[in-house]
Design a protein that fits this description.
- There is one protein chain.
- With 229 residues, the protein is α/β, with parallel strands linked by helices.
- It is built from 7 helices and 6 strands, in the order H-E-H-E-H-E-H-E-H-H-E-E-H.
- The longest helix is centred in the middle third of the chain and has 19 residues.
- The protein is globular, with a radius of gyration of 16 Å.
- It starts with a helix and ends with a helix.
Length: 229
């Protein structure tokens, strides 16, 4: 990607890391009325970028041991990462005793999440899927980094990976789907690539790509969605 985009992602991850000093907590069976939440980062991301989102969930009654960050090699094929997500979700379910999880993803994490849900049968294990600026139908920006990694090549509009995801039902199973997208995104191009047929697609007036991870209004909506409100 362009140097400015890479720099923005790295800066956001570094800033969020300072907010995540608490570290991972031991998994305990969650309250019966809600599912544990699995966060799936995007290209150049890692678990620390979710610090603001986790803070929003904690402020709304969740416990730290109900919040799980899935970390994967963003340079590897998204299909490989999706298989890793499938194993991670099964472990979260086993450790917490929960029959399902909720997934919150960002950017390329949307591709990882949707491959898991659609191609690996994950819809039976996911109650709610919230996607922030998900690259569900790719982005033209990916043409700048296709030589860097298989995952970025898959993010290019028209790739075999994206054609497979777009075929048939884009929102399978009983999972509830909601996306957030904005004309000010700057990374997902065209910005409406995030929308999924059958999902509750929420247009945000002007939030840039990285700001989806920190915007209080958006994060409040994400928490309410996963709680079924």
């Amino acid at each position: 990607m362009k140097r400015s985009i890479v720099g923005t992602f790295v800066a956001a991850a570094t800033a969020a890391a300072s907010l995540a000093a608490g570290g991972a907590a031991t998994a305990v069976q969650p309250a019966a009325h809600r599912a544990p939440v699995v966060f799936v980062h995007g290209y150049l991301g890692s678990d620390p970028v979710w610090a603001p989102a986790k803070a929003a969930f904690l402020a709304n009654g969740y416990r730290s041991d109900e919040l799980f960050g899935f970390v994967y090699d963003y340079n590897t094929s998204n299909e490989t990462s999706a298989r890793g997500l499938a194993a991670f979700v099964e472990k979260v379910k086993k450790d917490t005793g929960a029959p399902k999880v909720d997934i919150v993803n960002h950017s390329m994490g949307g591709m990882v999440s949707m491959w898991y849900v659609k191609e690996l049968g994950g819809s039976t294990s996911v109650g709610h899927l919230a996607s922030l600026a998900g690259a569900h139908h790719g982005t033209d920006v990916a043409t700048l980094c296709t030589v860097m990694s298989p995952s970025c090549a898959e993010m290019k509009p028209g790739s075999a990976f994206l054609k497979r995801l777009a075929s048939g039902d884009e929102t399978p199973g009983d999972t509830r789907y909601r996306t957030w997208y904005s004309p000010c995104d700057g990374v997902i191009s065209p910005f409406f690539s995030t929308r999924l047929k059958g999902a509750d697609n929420t247009l945000v007036p002007c939030v840039n790509h990285v700001a989806f991870l920190t915007d209080g209004g958006v994060l409040s909506q994400v928490v309410a969605f996963t709680k079924g409100e």
